[in-house]
């Protein structure tokens, strides 16, 4: 059960309307790194979580993300107030039209959504549940949550850098900082699980867990703890990088006799003649820029 408090978690103070800035702010309202995506990610994880501590944590943060959605939505609403009034009442028609000159998303915001917050990103792409990548394993999901909080922090940094409004900067700094706090909580929850790597139950094949294949060779090769040292057996030899299972490195399948016969018949019917050089329609109609023709 949710109960709404009419006071925002953080006070929103906007110095003046700015519809184009409102469009950029939509990234954290209906975008992939935005607050709705975060709230739905953690809320659905909480519903499925069996561990009482993680369940409580996920519900707490999911609910806070909804409050952040309200904050960023309020910023967007305040930034669009002037244009909303102009559009609604037909006042200062030219001023209203100037708000439509930024890009297609700001035009859609004004005309379709009346300068209110819409569940789209800053390019006008509708919010989608495809933003949620929960897979149902707590160690995998917590790592994904940590990455999601990191990405959201970076988006807030970029939004802070595109506005001079001190009130907006203040509110965005709060939201950015809460991403840091959530990341810390998720880190603690992850490492409270022992063992927490690798995710899932099945162990990796020890024949391959400590091997690094240097498959991009040439200028720019760098060695570090991620690909060499005591933790790794490094394979640089190109021949040793193929058919590492000891087989012949080919794909095969066992077919029934009838299937094998049908496959051979199809191959014979569709075979290509490497000695042919037929005249094609492209050559018959070739003009400047067609390249070499027969």
Would you kindly provide a brief summary of this structure?
The protein has 11 helices and 2 strands, in the order H-H-H-H-H-H-H-H-H-E-E-H-H.
**CATH uppermost class of the domain at 19-191:** Mainly Alpha
Which topology of the domain at 19-191 does CATH recognise? Ferritin
Q: Poorly predicted ranges (pLDDT <50, ≥5 residues)?
A: 96-104
Structural classification: mainly alpha
Q: What this model shows, in words?
A:
With 294 residues, the chain is mostly helical. The chain has a domain at 19-191: Up-down Bundle (Ferritin). Helices cover 49% and strands 2% of the residues. It has helices at residues 19-25, 27-30, 35-48, 52-79, 81-89, 93-98, 104-111, 138-161, 166-191, 257-269, 281-284; strands at residues 211-213, 233-235. Strands 1-2 form a two-stranded parallel ribbon.
Secondary-structure blueprint of this entry?
Blueprint: H1 19-25, H2 27-30, H3 35-48, H4 52-79, H5 81-89, H6 93-98, H7 104-111, H8 138-161, H9 166-191, E1 211-213, E2 233-235, H10 257-269, H11 281-284
Parallel strand pairs: 1-2
Structure keywords:
294 residues; mainly alpha; Ferritin; two-stranded parallel sheet; extended
């Amino acid at each position: 059960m949710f109960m709404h408090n009419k006071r925002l978690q953080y006070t929103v103070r906007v110095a003046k309307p700015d519809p184009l800035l409102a469009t950029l702010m939509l990234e954290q309202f209906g975008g992939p790194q935005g607050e709705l995506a975060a709230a739905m990610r953690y809320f659905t994880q909480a519903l499925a979580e069996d561990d009482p501590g993680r369940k409580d944590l996920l519900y707490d943060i999911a609910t806070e993300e909804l409050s952040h959605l309200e904050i960023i939505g309020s910023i967007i609403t305040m930034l669009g107030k002037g244009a909303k009034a102009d559009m609604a009442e037909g006042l200062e028609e030219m001023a209203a039209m100037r708000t439509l000159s930024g890009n297609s998303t700001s035009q859609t915001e004004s005309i379709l959504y009346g300068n209110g917050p819409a569940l789209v990103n800053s390019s006008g792409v509708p919010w989608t549940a495809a933003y949620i990548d929960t897979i149902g394993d707590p160690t995998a999901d917590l790592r994904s949550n940590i990455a999601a909080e990191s990405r959201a922090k970076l988006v807030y940094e970029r939004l802070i850098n595109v506005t001079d409004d001190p009130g907006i900067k203040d509110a965005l700094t709060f939201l950015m900082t809460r991403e840091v706090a959530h990341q810390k909580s998720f880190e603690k929850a992850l490492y409270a699980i022992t063992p927490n790597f690798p995710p899932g139950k099945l162990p990796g094949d020890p024949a391959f867990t400590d091997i690094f294949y240097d498959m991009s060779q040439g200028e720019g090769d760098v060695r570090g703890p991620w690909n060499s040292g005591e933790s790794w057996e490094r394979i640089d030899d190109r021949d040793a990088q193929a058919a590492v299972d000891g087989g012949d490195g080919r794909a095969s399948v066992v077919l029934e006799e009838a299937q094998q016969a049908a496959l051979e018949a199809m191959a014979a019917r569709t075979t290509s003649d490497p000695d042919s050089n037929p005249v094609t329609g492209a050559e018959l109609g070739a003009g400047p820029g067609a390249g070499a023709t027969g």
